[in-house]
């Protein structure tokens, strides 16, 4: 057997930041809603790295409100290899393609772990050099909270060099000399592998162009960063070659950012627990709780046709010009020019539909116009732009149906705003017949807690109104108790520093509790039992998960969790015997593959068959894949995988687990094809996973065998999901039959509740599992594997940071700890 290793795949090239738009075509203007977005560099780390990332080490100055806190002060004096004139280009300090990975050795920097791509040492400076203009070289500060009024200072120098500009007709690379380098600075969040910009007031990023003969340039950028995410960072990026030195990032507390909500960590019938990330400057946190009270029994409706030009209360219109005949069906309509806006009303509910008539009037050929109509939407944190229409497609007038044309409008936003821009002289748009439906109008009423304060003396709903407050800055979770199980609640967390409070932001406590599981009945040794449970408040339905259950009898480093050899794909199923000429199933949507596998739950798209094998066809028009059943991996933090597969010699087998892609290269075979026959291991951070399998180049592949193994100890519980049944809200039992086919004596079941509210849905955590022994006829409620391990034996087996990086030791901030009983705990390390 050949051993091999897995690596994370690069999902896409590292492209420079661009604003997405759709070019107007003079021959055929199209009506199209364009999503306003920007793409930027997203790095992917290698699976294994010698570096354990540590966060930004920047203790907050909570004494003075006027002085600046220093977050980063780095002179790269430990980057001793190479010189400014001749950087060490033979070795990387950080690379997403090559060793050592994206993390820079923290011994080379002052505070925390820097990251990047195509970073080299240059004798006391960092050298960023792109291989070609379409790939970015990147340097990123340690992860941490970069909220507040931020000032970034650095020295940058453009360097000479050659870069790959493309290929000639023979495929040979063509090179060009750098005449200058673009240089960008932006604030990101979500970790180095994310593609999210932080919410700032600097138009996403700062950029300039530097030239070799300009020498060192001192750059200073100041902006407000409103996101206090603990996985934020400052990014420096180039599409050429630059030296960067003397990086300083400071902040001033002109405001304090709103805490990043981690989410509801526990939802019960009469209580729920919310958790948030700490804000660097916070003294403590103020807790708010509201309940939704409906002000109407029916859905809300807004309509405006501008016939009398008296917009109803709540409408905001900056234009006072009305056309007598250019509205819908020749009626009146509102005329809008550059700079005009119209905002629709709020009634405490989210919108369901938003229609309006739009007409574009221009004295020139409309195909030559690039005028836009921006669409802004109102969220719980304020207005944001989500896209635009090219208005040249509306010269004849037409009705815009936002809920149909704009993904995500329904049930997500509380108002919308129209803003034309780019109109040339003599051009204008006409808006008419704005027709809106909303969910039931409502208002939020403050709920007063045991420790609450009504600060009415300070003004209505002042900063001093609160449900409760934390004792200090280290408490970053709170449990609301004694709640009405049938009421919808909204909560908010406000950071407090001196006399400054963060902006209130209310979040819906959307949730439903798990039902209480009851003992099984009608247990039949021939292969059946009935699962039972009590109803849960608000539940609109239930999902019953049934497992094959094994209690481990002795320690085993290679316990088999799932083993599939596809023996059911025999001559009675297919006449194809050669993996290179398989039978096409023609399943171009998600399809259950149970008839070809030992255990049920396998799903696939675009699949193929050959005796003893299951695969996917080559396709560039759709995504083909094979997906395993969900199975339990909570007994260890490593999963071993044996794969025997066939494909193209230049292709890569992709294994996607919990949103992370791992790849395995097909080895060249004697006949020119490719094969995989070996064992690898990958880290796992979830208790239950499904593995999605496809190929990097969209090529055909066949699985001959795949086996998943994990280290277990005596007494560990191993469970494999083999059936999943959905019931309605009135059904509180379900009978499973034909269990003898699975070949197990012991089974288990857990139940989750389902709840939907105003277009959004949620499911509960699983209930306690009931273990059923068909041989003895016994059943008992299990709260997990802790019943098989004495309390004193429960131990920590792995520790992770909030962004999922495994930690070698406790790290300041929130740590996620996996225990030997299969549970996970979140702790704050001070």
Explain what the structure shows.
The protein is mostly beta strands. It contains one helix and 66 strands. Strands 42, 43, 46, 47, 50, 53, 54 and 57 form an eight-stranded antiparallel sheet that branches. It is globular, with a radius of gyration of 30 Å. The N terminus is likely disordered.
List the topology elements.
Elements: E1 7-8, E2 18-19, E3 33-35, E4 38-39, E5 69-74, E6 115-117, E7 119-121, E8 126-129, E9 137-140, E10 148-158, E11 162-167, E12 173-177, E13 181-189, E14 196-197, E15 205-210, E16 217-225, E17 233-238, E18 241-252, E19 261-267, E20 272-276, E21 284-294, E22 300-304, E23 316-317, E24 322-323, E25 333-336, E26 342-343, E27 351-361, E28 372-379, E29 382-390, E30 398-401, H1 402-405, E31 416-421, E32 428-438, E33 442-446, E34 468-469, E35 477-480, E36 489-497, E37 500-501, E38 507-508, E39 517-524, E40 528-533, E41 541-551, E42 556-564, E43 583-584, E44 591-592, E45 603-605, E46 607-610, E47 613-616, E48 625-627, E49 631-632, E50 638-648, E51 652-657, E52 660-665, E53 667-668, E54 673-683, E55 688-689, E56 691-695, E57 701-712, E58 717-728, E59 733-736, E60 746-757, E61 760-763, E62 769-773, E63 779-782, E64 796-800, E65 813-819, E66 824-829
Antiparallel strand pairs: 1-52, 2-4, 3-29, 5-18, 6-9, 7-8, 8-18, 9-17, 10-16, 10-18, 11-12, 13-14, 13-15, 13-17, 19-20, 20-35, 21-33, 21-34, 21-36, 22-32, 23-26, 24-25, 25-32, 26-31, 27-30, 27-32, 28-29, 28-31, 36-37, 36-38, 39-40, 40-59, 41-58, 41-60, 42-57, 43-46, 44-45, 45-48, 46-47, 47-57, ...
């Amino acid at each position: 057997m050949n051993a091999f290793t897995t690596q994370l795949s690069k999902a896409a090239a590292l492209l420079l930041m661009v604003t997405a738009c759709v070019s107007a075509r003079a021959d055929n203007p199209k009506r199209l809603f364009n999503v306003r977005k920007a793409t930027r560099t997203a790095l992917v780390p290698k699976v294994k790295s010698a570096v354990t990332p540590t966060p930004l080490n920047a203790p907050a100055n909570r004494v003075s409100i006027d002085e600046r806190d220093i977050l980063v002060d780095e002179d790269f004096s430990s980057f001793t290899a190479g010189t400014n004139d001749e950087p060490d280009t033979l070795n990387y300090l950080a690379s997403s393609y090559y060793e050592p990975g994206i993390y820079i050795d923290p011994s080379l920097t002052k505070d925390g772990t820097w990251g990047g791509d195509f970073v080299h040492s240059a004798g006391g400076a960092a050298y960023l050099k792109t291989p070609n203009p379409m790939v970015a070289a990147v340097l990123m500060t340690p992860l941490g909270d970069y909220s507040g009024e931020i000032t970034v200072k650095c020295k940058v120098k453009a360097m000479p060099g050659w870069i790959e500009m493309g290929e000639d007709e023979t495929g040979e690379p063509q090179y060009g000399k750098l005449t200058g380098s673009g240089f960008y600075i932006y604030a990101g969040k979500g970790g180095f592998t994310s593609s999210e910009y932080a919410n700032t007031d600097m138009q996403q990023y700062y950029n300039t162009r530097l030239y070799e003969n300009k020498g060192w340039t001192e750059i200073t950028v100041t902006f407000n960063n409103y996101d206090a995410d603990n996985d934020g960072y400052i990014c420096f990026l180039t599409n050429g070659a630059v030296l960067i030195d003397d990086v300083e990032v400071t902040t001033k507390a002109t405001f304090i950012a709103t805490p990043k909500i981690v989410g509801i960590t526990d939802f019960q019938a009469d209580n729920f627990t919310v958790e948030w990330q700490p804000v660097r400057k916070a003294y403590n946190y103020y807790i708010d709780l509201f309940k939704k009270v409906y002000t109407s029994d029916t859905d809300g409706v807004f309509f405006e046709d501008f016939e009398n030009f008296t917009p109803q209360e709540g409408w905001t219109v900056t234009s006072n010009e009305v056309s007598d005949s250019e509205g819908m069906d020749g009626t009146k309509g509102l005329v809008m020019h550059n700079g005009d806006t119209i905002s629709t009303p709020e009634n405490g509910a989210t919108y369901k539909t938003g229609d309006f008539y739009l007409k574009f009037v221009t004295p020139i050929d409309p195909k030559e116009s690039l005028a836009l109509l921006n669409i802004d939407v109102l969220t719980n944190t304020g207005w944001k732009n989500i896209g635009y229409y090219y208005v040249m497609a509306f010269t004849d007038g037409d009705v815009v149906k936002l809920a149909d044309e704009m993904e995500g409008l329904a049930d997500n936003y509380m108002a919308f705003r129209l803003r034309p821009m780019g109109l040339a002289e003599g051009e204008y748009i006409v808006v008419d017949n704005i027709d809106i439906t909303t969910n039931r109008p409502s208002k939020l009423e403050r709920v007063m807690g045991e420790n609450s304060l009504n600060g009415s003396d300070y003004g209505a709903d002042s900063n001093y109104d609160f449900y409760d407050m934390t004792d200090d800055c280290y408490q970053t979770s709170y449990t609301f108790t004694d709640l009405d199980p049938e009421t919808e609640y909204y909560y908010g967390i406000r950071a407090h520093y001196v006399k400054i409070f963060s902006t209130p932001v209310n979040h819906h406590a959307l949730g439903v509790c798990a039902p209480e599981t009851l003992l099984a009945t009608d247990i039949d040794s021939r292969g059946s039992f009935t699962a039972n449970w009590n109803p849960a408040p608000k539940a609109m339905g239930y999902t019953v998960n049934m497992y094959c259950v094994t209690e481990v009898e002795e320690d085993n480093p290679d316990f088999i969790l799932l083993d599939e050899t596809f023996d059911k794909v025999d001559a009675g199923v297919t006449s194809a015997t050669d993996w290179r000429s398989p039978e096409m199933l023609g399943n171009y949507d998600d399809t259950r593959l149970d008839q070809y596998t030992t255990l049920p739950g396998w799903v696939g798209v675009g699949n193929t068959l050959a005796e003893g094998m299951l695969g996917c066809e080559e396709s560039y028009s759709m995504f083909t894949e094979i997906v395993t059943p969900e199975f339990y991996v909570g007994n260890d933090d490593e999963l071993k995988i044996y794969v025997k597969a066939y494909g193209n010699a230049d292709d890569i087998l992709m294994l996607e687990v919990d949103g992370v892609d791992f790849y395995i290269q097909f080895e060249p075979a004697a006949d020119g094809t490719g094969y995989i026959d070996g064992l690898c291991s990958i880290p796992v951070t979830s208790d239950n996973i499904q593995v999605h399998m496809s190929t990097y180049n969209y090529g055909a592949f066949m699985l001959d065998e795949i086996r998943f193994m994990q280290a277990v100890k005596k007494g560990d519980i191993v469970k494999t999901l083999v059936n999943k049944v959905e019931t309605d809200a009135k059904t509180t039992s379900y009978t499973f039959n034909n269990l003898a086919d699975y070949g197990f004596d012991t089974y288990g079941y857990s139940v989750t509740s389902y709840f939907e509210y105003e277009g959004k849905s949620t499911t509960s955590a699983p209930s306690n599992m009931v273990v059923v022994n068909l041989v003895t006829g016994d059943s008992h409620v299990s709260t997990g594997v802790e019943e098989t391990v004495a309390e004193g034996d429960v131990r920590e087996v792995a520790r992770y940071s909030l962004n999922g990086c495994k930690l070698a030791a406790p790290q300041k901030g929130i740590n996620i700890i996996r225990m030997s009983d299969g549970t996970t705990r979140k702790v704050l390390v001070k």
